[in-house]
Amino acid sequence: MQLSKQVLQEPMNKIYDTIVIGGGVGGLSAGIYLQRYLLNSLIIDKGKARSFWMQELHNYLGLPPDTQGRTLLKHGKDHYLSLGGDLLNRYVEEVIDTGSIFEVKVKIGRQNSTYKIFHTKYLIAASGIIDNLPFVDNMQNVYDYAGYNLHVCLICDGYEMADKRVGIFGRNERSLEVAFSLGWFTPYITLFTQDMFEISSQFRDRLWEHEYKLVEKPISKFLGANHQMTGVQMMDGSVIELDAGLVSMGSQFHSAYLSGLNLQTQGETLVTDQICRTSHPRIFAVGDLKLGLNQVVVAASDGAIAATGIWRDIRRERGVKRRPSNIDSSILAS
Ligand SMILES: Cc1cc2nc3c(=O)[nH]c(=O)nc-3n(C[C@H](O)[C@H](O)[C@H](O)COP(=O)(O)OP(=O)(O)OC[C@H]3O[C@@H](n4cnc5c(N)ncnc54)[C@H](O)[C@@H]3O)c2cc1C
Fold it and tell me: What structural domains and CATH numbers belong to the chain?
């Protein structure tokens, strides 16, 4: 059921088998599997998933390569709701581990916000990441091309850049290392520092050996029309023509709500075992938030694996038999 402000009391009185934080690809996939295991689940999603910005999903079995991320999400959400799952479009502020139950604190309303607490035995963190983008005075200029031919993912879009003149926009020397992988697809590479960091002499030598160009001046704006970027204008007025761009500026992790739980991470990425279980036995993580390939097919697969792991745990705990659904043992007051 799609939850709204008006119908929160009953869900707040329940203990869900699983609350999934994030309704992108990984979270919706997990939700579909949880519901099909006859478990009760709630997905809490603040919206605008990374997949929402994906203009074309080029590499997913069985879907046309021009499938938009938002289409995939709509089908996933409809599918989940058709199986009786609960969905709340809100932001999760914090998760508190009280022992056998997690309290999930959700922000309601942008102004004069109130907070509501939902309860669950298991948690799936599916809240993903979001890419840092090059900074120019008018950011709408970047949004016009980001996700079209200003790509953010070499694995997703290397093929689209084959034999094209590609500009790479980095945030430090290390982030520009992606040039040597992009070199598999195209030799016509220009690296942009945007005058934000220094390049070492060793790195310059490597670029020279590969015949890659280096531009160290600040950018004024991206040029192009109809979401197709055709080059970059520098602050000094000069123009560099390009056929595509690749942003390699790192990302922000949507995991602030987990900060009190002391989970094992590598950098900011959550470490999980083969069934997507984190270092906490009842917290699972799926998709871009965890170690692994940041791909739609992986996030969808993670969701299936995590949900199946949780079903197995609950089956073992309850014995083979499922509690009949008319005995609502999950009511908090009981
Ligand atoms: C422009 C672009 C193009 C791409 N192209 C491809 C491609 O062609 N092929 C491919 O396989 N992959 C592609 N990807 C990568 C793909 O989109 C991701 O790997 C995938 O979306 C990861 O899914 P996820 O479920 O982990 O995260 P997401 O899809 O990002 O979903 C996470 C959800 O959690 C929500 N959330 C975050 N924090 C909170 C919170 N505190 N409370 C509640 N909700 C929260 C977010 O709003 C979001 O809705 C592309 C990505 C981008 C940006």
Answer: 2-130+251-318 (3.50.50.60), 133-248 (3.50.50.60)
